[in-house]
Amino acid sequence: MIAITAESVTPLTDAEITTATPAVRMRGLSKRYDERWVLRDITLDVPTGSYLALLGANGAGKSTLLHTLAMLSPATRGELSLFGESAARPSPALRARLGMIGHQPMLYRDLSAIENLVFFGKLYDVSRPKQRAMDMLERVGLADRALSVVKTFSRGMVQRLSIARALMHAPELLLADEPFSGLDVPSVQAVSALLAELHADGKTVILTNHDVRQSLELAQRVVVLGRGRVVSDRRAQDANADEVTREVIG
Ligand SMILES: Nc1ncnc2c1ncn2[C@@H]1O[C@H](COP(=O)(O)OP(=O)(O)OP(=O)(O)O)[C@@H](O)[C@H]1O
Ligand SMILES: [Mg+2]
Q1: Is the distance from the beta carbon of residue 60 to the nearest atom of ligand 1 less than 6 Å?
Q2: pTM to 2 decimals?
Q3: Which of 37, 54, 63 to mutate to test the pocket of ligand 1 (most atoms within 8 A of CB)?
Q4: DSSP state of 82
Q5: Across the 250 residues of the chain, what is the mean pLDDT of every consecutive 10-residue run?
Q6: Burial of 147 (0-12, 13-18, 19+ CB in 10 A)
Q7: With a 6 A CB cut-off, is 63 part of the ligand 1 pocket?
């Protein structure tokens, strides 16, 4: 028998530990709506601290996959774990580690921008929520509209506020469904800077996007979905935009 002493065991480095527990682990993830399979046998690991763009044509399954990862709707088959915890019975603490930007803005239309952010901040136990809320409004270019009620906002303003809301609690995993849709050029830049900062801070970002070139610039890795399956999975730096576009078109 070999005795394992403290000296004979090399401790894992931080990098190895984070690699060992991916932010997201999918194994044969499949989802059916009525008789139609919209996600088919998706097996992927998303390492903690990585930045992934999900591409694919309309109806490919991108939003469905993000919803499943956000534990808003269960997979029909397969396994999903987030930060090593099974999504089958997620703890409230696990949910608090996620942020979701979806098609639904998840904002109260009759409350002001600042009231919305402070409300979500308190829900997530954010310290000094008012200060954080003002800071986030600044970041998304809405500081001057802090006191306006959401129902008076333009579409792009609602989208920016919903991004600020999702980032209020500095989530460890951000799931963003077409975060740039409806945004003007300065807002696209502001939001991509926010996402890059989150990534530089060691957080994990998964977004869906229809702009192949922009995805290759922003993300480290691009995964193309087609009819619910993974069509390709590449490092952004090795990927050719035309080739990825062809895969998206299918
Ligand atoms: N609630 C639902 N009930 C039934 N079918 C659904 C539901 N949600 C999505 N689907 C179906 O699942 C498939 C994938 O849809 P999904 O919204 O995930 O696509 P997507 O890749 O996000 O497309 P887009 O680029 O248009 O946003 C589509 O065929 C869609 O009709
Ligand atoms: Mg979608």
Answers
A1: yes
A2: 0.91
A3: 63
A4: E
A5: 48 57 96 96 97 98 97 96 95 95 92 98 96 96 97 95 95 97 92 94 97 97 98 96 96
A6: exposed
A7: yes
